[in-house]
Amino acid sequence: MRIVGHSLLLFSVQLGLGISVVSGSEGEVDFRIPIGFLQEVSISLKVSHQSELKIPPVAVRFVPQNGAARMSKRKAIFMSMLLPGLGERSIGSYRSANLFYGSESSLWLSLFIFQKRKEWKREDYQTYAAARAGVNNEGKNDQFYSDVSNFSDVDEFNAAIRRSREPESVYSGADEQWSWSTEEERLKFKSLKLESDNAGQNIKRIIGVMLVNRIFSVMNTVYRYNKLDSPATLSLNIGNFSELSLTAKF
User: Does one domain contain both 181 and 88?
Assistant: First the structure.
């Protein structure tokens, strides 16, 4: 490349990335480069001499701020909704991606633990009710076990229901009977059922946190995606010629 001071130049240069239109005067050259996902790059190249200069071949290397290739914002958002951290990784924000991967992994592990705890405790209280109160567990819902935990036997429950004028809610079937021998056994059963219920509530909380985690990941992805529009760096290697400054605006 050849730059001549005190003269107006209009020429085209190819530096591997495809510099298209170049113009300049008095030791200052302006040109535009279409690079990758960017529309164009505006470069201002200044030299300190005004006499004729011969510059060795120039090697230009474009480095995005995060080293990532541009992709659709909508696709990045979808990936963050699918798995927090995936959207960040797709645009090159690896540190953020790892943080979201870690939090999401912890949430899934917690979800698995509480789900198993809920199932184990449900098996425990059903087995206990069958052994101590004669409960038939086949086809019973959660409301039935709540009633079993709150009343000593089916007769006490039905009497309370009739007083509240809800006769349609009484238990009359042979498979709907129960009777606790002692109050301690009933309270023991109630405690086991409460542990299972608490595990179920924790599952709902974790699912809520997972939704929030996805919202934060989407917000972070959008923020970091938009940062790709901020100035990047352009490294220039011109051999031994050092009296040259380069600024790039994106």
Answer: yes
3-state DSSP call for residue 143?
helix
Q: How far is CA 96 from the centre of its chain?
A: 9
- Range ranked top by mean pLDDT from 27-36, 52-61, 179-188: 179-188
Tally of structural domains, the chain: 2
b/e per residue 200-220 (b: at least 16 CB within 10 A) = bebbeebeeebeebbeebbeb
Distance CA 59, CA 234 (A): 10
Is the domain of 98 the same as that of 200? yes
pLDDT at 151 over 50: yes
pTM greater than 0.85 (yes/no): no
**How far is residue 108 from each of residues 80, 89, 115, measured CA to CA in Å?**
16, 20, 10
| Spatial distance between the Cα atoms of 170 and 159, rounded to a whole number of angstroms | 8
Q: Detail the DSSP E strand segments found in the chain.
A: 2-3, 9-11, 22-25, 28-33, 41-47, 53-54, 59-63, 233-237, 244-249
CB 87 within 8 A of CB 221: yes
* pLDDT higher than 80, residue 40: no
61-118 residue pLDDT tens: 444 444 444 568 889 899 999 999 999 998 888 999 999 999 999 999 999 999 999 9
Q: Look up the domain containing 28 and give its range.
A: 2-65+230-249
| Distance of alpha carbon 64 from alpha carbon 92, whole angstroms | 10
User: Given a cut of 80, is residue 8 above it in pLDDT?
Assistant: no
Same domain, 238 and 185: no
